[in-house]
């Protein structure tokens, strides 16, 4: 008899638990008349980006468009690419994705993105309002598969107090100063410059500033460029800093030590190269640290940084393309662009440039830097190419290969991928 | 001579306890460190020297995890999935085990052999075909899908354990019921199950833990943040620029404490379940 | 009689059917399916077709240096963790196999890591082994002065594998201990107690009395640990994710990356199917090997 009670109780618990577990799913289906669009992004939850999106932008959009609900799914940047690819495999893509500009060719090539130039009747007018550089990152085999959402580049971001404490009076302006200042900082037990990886995003600014390049102009060949003397020299300079104990080991293993943000807040590192979001993240998560910014130290090729940014893309599988398109337009409108600019996202609207410096003075440096910044190679194979780049440059850092060997090897592998 | 031997015994016992205590210390320190970190404000998580007792403990990480990070939701998801998995797995495997333990039927050896194969293959190796299967069944991104695959994955071990337990139930008891005209269902429900409560508890706990802790499958198939389970949620706390370790370990503590409690309470069943497999192999 | 026999059979199948159908669908069918997929250049994107390439994925693996390194790393993980878990688990079991105060408490504490989720302990170990500010480097460098500088644990292949192995051992000792302890308790107490008092010859007695009695259990534990070693995934995935430079890739992390980062389901399946075969072969070989002395006796 008691046993039957146990079964009954168990059954009850199962029922309750299953209900609790599926309740979340039900929320989206109860309102038959509202359309829900799902939007995946890697907006940073450390800073104000996610809050702006979820507390300001989406409510505003839903107010303007009754009947459309936006479901925001924030995934950490490091996991987003894998999640996207897995969703491609499972046919589980959302309606909209805020994709890193370097993934758009890959996703377009997989055939999962909706070409926008043939889908949006007003594509031409939107196109004319945004910067051409960021727009170009959406172009693949004759079509535009997305719209630029934000753009950015990396500048020299530093903690002036930490820098003073490290015996360096002003940020380095040239490669030569970078080297001597790094030695000075080491003498005071700090690292002048911390870099948290060896991918192109991390290393390419140095190669380009030194006058080197990754491929030829038409993106068909890396040998003779990636392993050319200018590129080798730039990487060699960084490797020398690392070997002299003047750069922290997070460059070869970003998990292995104090992250750039924590290190700069704790005055262990004085500087990093980073985008505008760093300022807003510090303002909210590291309130005691004031950051300053200047252009990347110049080499023989000038001060050349890397173009970053995100595009907003619509998936072919989206069942709510009209509603999704509305949200795209909304995100490209000056209201949304300005709101996100306050959270550290540089707008892509030509009209917003003037007011940008008023929002935050640091944008002046970013605007100056982005004028000369270069994009990474636009190809569907970019994730694999960047993997090769990252692996080979790291080999040079750990000393398992000389810089020349590592880059020559990398160039050969990249040649294969560019074919 | 006698006192000498007694003091020697005591000395040996002392050495025993000393060695064991050092070992226990090493087992426990990481947990203590985890708990200590969960009580530190974020700025101090990598302080030097590391402190096992924080100076200004704060529960901010816990409230933060529970409120602003939807941890309550993830907790319920994990709980719901684990309870449903446990229920279905114990139910289905006890029926299978009864069939294997008490009936002779054509194909018994082959089917049991197949079950043993399932016992040997680690689930992780099947993740690709299972992913495709889940896609075809429409079970991606669904908690029901999690229960379905978790249940299927725990059946082999549970059936194996329960079978050996059922075999130990004296046949005479069942034969007496047969004489009274009881059919197989009645024997299963009225005799075998009630007599096997400890064993059912054992496999129940195993299934619950397996489901509660499962990570890879959920990470791969779940996209909707409202359907995340605790392990995925914890792993996704790692930020892009810095990991909020205090938050990670507050969340971890929330996830681990129920398991530790359950283990301490059901320890006996747990150990018996573990050793059934080993000592009968 | 005949009719009741048929009824029995029918009942058996009824008991068996729901569970076995689910088991067959979720476990058996995927085993076969993994093999099938591994013969294709599998195309998962809707609207594209898969191309049959025979054993192409397998020959690809043979020429893939990262596959070999992953195999090596998986092997290294087993070499590090399996003997250590057996020896340490046995040591603790032997020490606990006596009349002593708080025995149950000790057993519980040793077992705690076993029931703790892999995700939690992996993140915990990553945190403890952080180069600057981590607990381990603090103890080794600042406290004990055993090393001259903070060790960059996760930046190098072997030190990173060491961290992952230490985690595996730490988490696994309790499991083998509990099983060994249960096995030791089946050995007659008088024999063991004589051994305990007679310190000098304790080891000899252990070898003569306890060890032979629990040999089959050791075989079982070894098999399970080896299978567990091949199954290492979460710790690697969360501590190094195969990095730096694929140096710490193990078979399952490499398989996972091939499938879910590069969409190469065919190659991924060939890796996991290979692994399944190795696991089978090893378990069977080990069982045979350990059974022989008992059969002979």
Describe it for me?
The complex is a heterotrimer of chains A (about 425), B (about 280) and C (about 300). Chain A is α/β, with parallel strands linked by helices and about 425 residues long. Chain A has two domains: about 35-150 and about 310-360, D-Maltodextrin-Binding Protein, domain 2, CATH 3.40.190; about 155-305 and about 380-419, D-Maltodextrin-Binding Protein, domain 2, CATH 3.40.190. In chain A, about 50% of the residues lie in helices and about 15% in strands. Chain A is built from 18 helices and eleven strands. Chain A has a five-stranded mixed β-sheet. Chain A has a four-stranded mixed β-sheet with strand order 8-9-7-10. In chain A, strands 4-5 form a two-stranded antiparallel sheet. In chain A, β4 and β5 form a beta hairpin. In chain A, α9 (about 200-210) packs across α10 and α17 packs antiparallel against α18. Chain B has two domains: about 1-60; about 70-280, MetI-like (MetI-like fold, Orthogonal Bundle), CATH 1.10.3720. Chain B has helices at about 1-40, 60-65, 70-100, 110-120, 125-135, 145-165, 170-180, 185-195, 195-215, 215-220, 230-235, 245-265, 265-280. The two termini of chain B are about 45 Å apart. Chain C is mainly alpha-helical. Chain C has one domain: MetI-like fold (Orthogonal Bundle), CATH 1.10.3720. Chain C is built from twelve helices and two strands. A two-stranded antiparallel sheet of chain C has the order 1-2. The longest helix of chain C is centred in the first third of the chain and has 37 residues, at about 1-40. Chain C is flat and about 65 Å long. Chains B and C meet through α1, α3, α4, α5 and α6 of B and α1, α3, α4, α5 and α6 of C.
């Amino acid at each position: 008899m008691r046993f039957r009670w146990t079964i009954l109780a168990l059954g009850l618990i199962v029922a309750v638990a299953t209900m609790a577990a599926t309740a979340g799913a039900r929320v989206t289906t109860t309102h038959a008349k509202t359309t829900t669009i799902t939007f995946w992004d890697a907006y940073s939850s450390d800073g104000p980006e996610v809050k702006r999106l979820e507390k300001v932008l989406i409510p505003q959009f839903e107010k303007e468009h009754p009947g459309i609900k936006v479901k925001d799914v924030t995934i950490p940047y490091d996991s987003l690419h894998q999640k996207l690819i897995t969703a491609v495999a499972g046919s589980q893509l959302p309606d909209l994705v805020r994709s890193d500009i370097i993934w758009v060719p890959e996703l377009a090539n997989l055939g999962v993105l909706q070409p926008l130039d043939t889908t949006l009747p007003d594509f031409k007018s939107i196109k004319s309002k945004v910067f051409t550089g960021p727009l170009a990152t959406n172009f693949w085999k004759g079509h535009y598969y997305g719209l630029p959402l934000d753009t950015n580049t990396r500048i020299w971001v530093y903690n002036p107090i930490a820098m003073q404490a490290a015996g360096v009076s002003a940020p380095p302006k040239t490669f030569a100063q970078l080297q001597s200042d790094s030695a000075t900082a080491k003498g005071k037990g700090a690292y002048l410059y911390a870099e948290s990886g060896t991918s192109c995003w991390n290393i390419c600014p140095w190669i380009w500033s030194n006058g080197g390049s990754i491929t030829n102009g038409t993106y068909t060949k890396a040998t003779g460029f990636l392993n050319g003397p200018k590129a080798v020299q730039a990487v060699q300079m960084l490797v020398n800093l690392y070997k002299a104990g003047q750069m922290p080991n997070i460059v070869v293993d970003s998990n292995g030590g104090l992250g750039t943000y924590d290190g700069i807040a704790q005055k262990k590192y004085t500087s990093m190269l980073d985008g505008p979001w760093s300022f807003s993240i510090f303002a909210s998560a590291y309130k005691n640290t004031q950051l300053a910014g200047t252009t990347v130290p110049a080499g023989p090729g000038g001060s050349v940084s890397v173009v970053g940014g995100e595009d907003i893309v619509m998936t072919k599988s989206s069942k709510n393309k009209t509603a999704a398109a509305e949200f795209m337009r909304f995100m490209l409108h000056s209201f949304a662009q300005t709101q996100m600019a306050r959270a550290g996202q540089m707008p892509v609207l030509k009209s917003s440039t003037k007011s940008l410096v008023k929002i935050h003075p640091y944008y002046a440096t970013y605007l100056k830097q982005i004028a000369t910044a270069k994009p990474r190679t636009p190809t569907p194979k970019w994730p694999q190419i960047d993997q090769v780049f990252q692996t080979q440059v790291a080999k040079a850092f750990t000393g398992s290969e000389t810089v020349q060997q590592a880059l020559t090897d990398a160039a050969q592998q990249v040649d294969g991928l560019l074919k | 001579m006698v006192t000498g031997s007694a003091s020697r015994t005591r000395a040996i016992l002392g050495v025993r306890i000393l060695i064991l205590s050092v070992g226990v210390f090493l087992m426990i320190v990481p947990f203590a460190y985890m708990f200590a970190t969960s009580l530190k404000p974020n700025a101090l998580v990598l302080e030097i020297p590391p402190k096992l007792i924080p100076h200004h403990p704060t529960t901010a990480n816990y409230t933060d995890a529970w409120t602003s990070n939807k941890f309550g939701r993830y907790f319920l998801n994990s709980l719901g999935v684990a309870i449903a998995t446990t229920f279905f797995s114990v139910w289905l495997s006890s029926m299978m085990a009864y069939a294997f333990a008490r009936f002779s039927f054509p194909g018994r050896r082959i089917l049991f052999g197949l079950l043993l194969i399932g016992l040997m293959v680690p689930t992780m190796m099947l993740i690709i075909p299972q992913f495709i299967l889940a896609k075809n069944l429409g079970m991606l991104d669904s908690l029901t899908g999690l229960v379905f695959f978790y249940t299927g994955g725990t059946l082999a071990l549970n059936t194996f354990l329960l079978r050996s337990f059922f075999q130990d139930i004296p046949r005479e008891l069942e034969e007496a019921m047969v004489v009274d005209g009881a059919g197989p269902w009645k024997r299963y429900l009225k005799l075998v199950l009630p007599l096997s409560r400890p064993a059912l508890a054992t496999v129940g706990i195993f299934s619950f833990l397996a489901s509660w802790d499962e990570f890879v499958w959920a990470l791969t198939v779940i996209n909707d943040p409202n359907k995340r389970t605790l392990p995925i949620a914890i792993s996704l706390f790692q930020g892009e620029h810095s990991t909020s370790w205090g938050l990670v370990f507050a969340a971890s503590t929330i996830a681990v404490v129920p398991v530790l409690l359950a283990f301490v309470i059901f320890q006996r069943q747990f150990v018996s379940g573990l050793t059934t497999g080993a000592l009968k192999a | 009689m005949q009719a009741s026999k048929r009824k029995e059979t029918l009942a058996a199948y009824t008991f068996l059917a729901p569970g076995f159908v689910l088991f067959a669908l979720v476990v058996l069918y995927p085993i076969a399916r993994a093999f099938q997929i591994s013969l294709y250049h599998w195309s998962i994107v809707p609207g594209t077709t898969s191309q049959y390439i025979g054993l192409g994925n397998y020959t690809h693996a043979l020429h893939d240096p990262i596959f070999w390194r992953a195999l090596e790393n998986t092997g290294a993980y087993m070499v590090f963790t399996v003997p250590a878990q057996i020896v340490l688990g046995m040591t603790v079991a032997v020490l606990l196999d006596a009349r002593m105060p708080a025995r149950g408490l000790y057993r519980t504490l040793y077992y705690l890591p076993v029931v703790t989720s892999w995700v939690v302990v992996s993140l915990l170990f990553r945190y403890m082994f952080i180069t600057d500010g981590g607990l381990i480097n603090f103890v080794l460098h600042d406290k004990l002065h055993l090393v001259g500088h903070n060790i960059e644990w996760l930046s190098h292949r072997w030190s990173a594998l060491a961290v992952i192995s230490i985690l595996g051992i730490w988490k696994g000792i309790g499991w083998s201990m509990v099983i060994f302890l249960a096995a030791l308790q089946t050995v007659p107490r008088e024999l063991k107690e004589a051994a305990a008092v007679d310190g000098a010859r304790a080891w000899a007695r252990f070898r003569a009395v306890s060890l032979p009695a629990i040999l089959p259990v050791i075989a079982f534990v070894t098999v399970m640990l080896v299978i567990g070693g091949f199954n290492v995934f979460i710790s690697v995935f969360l501590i190094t994710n195969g990095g730096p430079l694929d140096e710490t890739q193990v078979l399952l992390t490499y398989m996972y990356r091939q499938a879910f980062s590069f969409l190469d389901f065919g190659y991924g399946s060939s890796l996991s199917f290979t692994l399944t075969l190795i696991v089978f072969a090893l378990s069977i070989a080990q069982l045979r090997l350990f059974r022989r002395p008992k059969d002979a006796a």
